[in-house]
Amino acid sequence: MARANLILLLVVSLLVMITVAESTRLAVGIAGKKASALACNSVYGAEEGDTCSFVAEMFNLSLDTFLAINPNIDCDSFFVGQWLCIEGVEK
């Protein structure tokens, strides 16, 4: 029984190491360059009824770009007056 627990522990440890290594590799990017950080140049205060898609469209941004310059946004629950980045540049 102890041997089975040890083998299970080793397998789980190996899986954790692989997961950490893969997530680190993916963060670096396909070309081996680190993902660029973005700095926000312009913001918009959210209004009643706004959605991520609506704000992105209003400022001629793709939804992917809008989400990239607002990395911590929760599209299901942002609030009136929340500052949303609408223009960003690479640092």
Keywords summarizing the entry:
2 strands, two-stranded antiparallel ribbon, 3 helices, elongated, alpha+beta, 91 residues
Summarize the topology.
Elements: H1 2-28, E1 38-45, H2 52-58, H3 63-69, E2 83-90
Helix pairs in contact: 2-3
Count of DSSP strands: 2
Strand order of the largest sheet: 1-2
How do the SSEs run, as a string of H and E? HEHHE
Per DSSP, the total helix count is 3
**What's the story with the biggest beta sheet?**
2 strands, antiparallel
Task: Describe, in plain words, how this protein is organized in 3D.
With 91 residues, the chain is an alpha+beta fold. It is 45% helix and 18% strand. The chain is built from three helices and two strands; from the N terminus they run αβααβ. The chain has helices at residues 2-28, 52-58, 63-69; strands spanning 38-45, 83-90.
Summarize the structure in short.
It is built from three helices and two strands.
